[in-house]
Design brief:
CATH class of chain B: Alpha Beta
Radius of gyration of chain B: 18 Å
Strand content of chain B: 25-35%
Shape of chain B: globular
Helix content of chain A: 10-25%
Oligomer: heterodimer
Number of domains of chain A: 1
Number of helices of chain A: 6
Strand content of chain A: 25-35%
CATH superfamily of chain A: Glutaconate Coenzyme A-transferase
CATH architecture of chain A: 3-Layer(aba) Sandwich
Shape of chain A: globular
Order of helices and strands of chain B: HEHEEEHEEEHEEEEEHE
Number of helices of chain B: 5
Helix content of chain B: 10-25%
CATH topology of chain A: Glutaconate Coenzyme A-transferase
């Protein structure tokens, strides 16, 4: 039985500003970025990533990139070598970089993308899914008939870093999410060696209902409070 | 394609949906929501909500990209949540889709084949940079309703013996709804079940190279957007 008061609880989760947190990302890192459109997108961490201009040769693992994204500058600055995700058609900067041969794109169906991350975090390296069987996205991948249906072998995804967003963190590093801003964030928190989370608010230990916690602190390394603009 | 034709297709799709949980794709399928029976059909959106409500009044709701936390699958369009709504992450959302839990999906289509293959996401010869959740949706939903204009803007047929555009999934379409006709797949065969009274069976056949039979329960309807489609 562990004893101690709230003041004595230490989980090792660090609380830094955005630039100091982004400083921890290694050269050539693979980086998962949370968000589905606007909700759940770590915009402040993304801006700090754009500001740290010496980081290049990056791989981004993110569902989609809209027409207007904080991360567009990374493509303009030629800092991305590869993108893995499900929907990039509407981002002009990325489409141009791809057509010029500057960026490699691994396109995955969105459900395959999210499951690859979930299983990457769960320690399962690959999985069979019926999605994409018989389509161009299954070309070059192993397939197998299971229960009379064709399935595609997909590799799970892990990353050096995840930059994600949650609504609140407590001072232990537990996270709660809001509405449709969860999306890929909880899975990404589990699948990276270094998880940096941007939150609206940081509260004391004990203020979050344990039943409401979407990501337990064990998956969190650094918490950044969104700065007032 | 005029607005009224899109609305007609959406309304006709809605007639297929009387209960259960449904995911509506982008485009014409989005319009289906306006014609659904109130309270009987719950809408799922892949970004993590079951129980999608109407869009908020744009005069009262300002989208702030920094703080918005409730949108539809476009990622940017604000929505509301119904009283029985729940939120979840993408893993659970695609468990609902791929796992066979959705009663139906209405999805836009570029082409549909006579064996129920669907092509909805890519055009040959162009860089293919986006697929989104369409493949998981179509592979998992119990019913796949393809909503599309009968011909392309260039007048080319879209309902074909075989799709020549990249596939979204094979053999998954259950129902095809266009501004002229409704086709259903029954035990692997394609049947014409409904046609508007503005054309003949021969004219429809000319626009529809896919092989199909006229169903025993085939009927001719008037194409009306206001009020119910009327049997003649």
């Amino acid at each position: 039985m562990m004893n101690g008061t709230i003041d004595q609880i230490q989980t090792g989760v660090e609380f830094l500003n955005a630039d100091k947190a982004i400083q921890r990302i290694p050269e050539g890192a693979s980086i998962m970025v949370g968000g589905f459109g606007f909700p759940g997108m770590p915009r402040h961490l993304s801006k700090a990533l754009v500001r740290r201009t010496e980081l290049d040769q990056l791989t981004l693992i993110m569902n989609s990139l809209g027409s207007v994204s904080t991360l567009n500058a990374l493509f303009e600055q030629n800092r991305i070598k590869k993108v893995i995700g499900s929907f990039f058609s509407t981002n002009k900067e990325l489409v141009v970089a791809y057509q010029e041969g500057k960026v490699e794109i691994d396109l995955l169906p969105q459900g395959t993308f999210t499951e690859a991350i979930r299983l990457g975090g769960a320690g399962i390296p690959a999985f069979f899914t019926p999605t994409a069987a018989g389509t161009v996205l299954a070309e070059g991948k192993e397939t197998r008939i299971i229960n009379g249906r064709e399935h595609v072998l997909e590799q799970s995804l892990t990353a050096d870093v995840a930059i994600i967003r949650a609504h609140k963190a407590d001072k232990a590093g537990n996270l709660v999410y809001k509405k449709t801003a969860q999306n890929f964030n909880p899975a990404m928190a589990t699948a990276a060696k270094l998880t940096i989370v941007e939150v609206d608010e940081i509260v004391e230990v004990g203020e979050l209902d344990p039943d409401s916690i979407g990501t337990p602190f064990i998956f969190v390394d650094i918490v950044v409070k969104r700065e007032e603009v | 394609m005029g607005v009224d034709i899109k609305q007609y297709i959406a309304k006709r799709c809605a007639q297929e949906l009387t209960s259960g949980v449904v995911n509506l794709g982008i485009g014409i399928p989005t319009l289906v929501a306006d014609y659904l029976p109130k309270g009987k059909v719950t809408l799922h959106s892949e970004n993590g909500i079951l129980g999608v409500g109407p869009e908020p009044d744009p005069n009262e709701f300002v989208v702030d990209p920094e703080t918005i936390d409730l949108v539809n699958a476009s990622g940017v369009q604000p929505i509301t949540a119904l009283p029985h709504a729940s939120y979840f992450d993408s893993s659970l959302s695609f468990t609902i889709m791929r796992g066979g839990h959705l009663d139906a999906t209405v999805i836009g289509a570029l082409q549909v084949s006579e064996t129920g293959d669907l092509a909805s996401w890519a055009v040959p010869g162009k860089a293919v940079l986006g697929v989104g959740g369409a493949m998981d949706l179509v592979i998992g939903a119990k019913r796949v309703i393809a909503a599309l204009s009968h011909l392309s803007p260039k007048g080319e047929p879209k309902i074909l013996p075989e799709c020549n555009y990249p596939l979204t999934a094979k053999n998954r379409v259950d129902t095809i709804v266009t501004e002229y006709a409704v086709f259903k797949f029954r035990e692997g065969r394609m049947y014409l079940v409904e046609m508007v009274d503005e054309l003949t069976l021969e004219q429809l056949k000319e626009m529809t190279p896919a092989h199909y039979e006229v169903a025993e329960d085939f009927k001719v309807v008037k194409r009306e957007v206001e009020g119910e489609a009327v049997l003649v």
